[in-house]
Amino acid sequence: MFVGALEFDLLLGDIRSLKQKRSVVRPLVAELRKRFEVAVAEAGHLDLHRRALLGVAVVAADSEHVRDVLDECERFVAGRPELELLSTHRRLLGPED
Fold first, then answer.
1. What average pLDDT does the structure give for the chain?
2. What pLDDT score does 60 carry?
3. Residues 45, 54: Cα–Cα separation, whole Å
4. Order of strands, sheet of 83-93, starting from the edge strand that comes earlier in the sequence
5. Are 8 and 45 in contact (CB under 8 A)?
6. The domain spanning residue 18 has which CATH number?
């Protein structure tokens, strides 16, 4: 079994309230879950209205599949025009860990 985790540090566009932030982050989280069948949560910067930290996790029997899914998630988020991807952090855990 392999577990992959990907963390996105995002800068949101012209957002002036936490309510507006939710209107951008919630659909993004829902789309990642639906499209890639991954676990997703807003994991940081909860009190900042222009920043978001999202965590994505995937479990599979094959490490290559985990990498492929995380790569697709990263491309999807990087291609969103309403936000800027500041950084990503990736971890892969396998049977030896």
1. 94
2. 95
3. 9
4. 39-44, 51-60, 2-12, 83-93
5. no
6. 3.30.70.1120
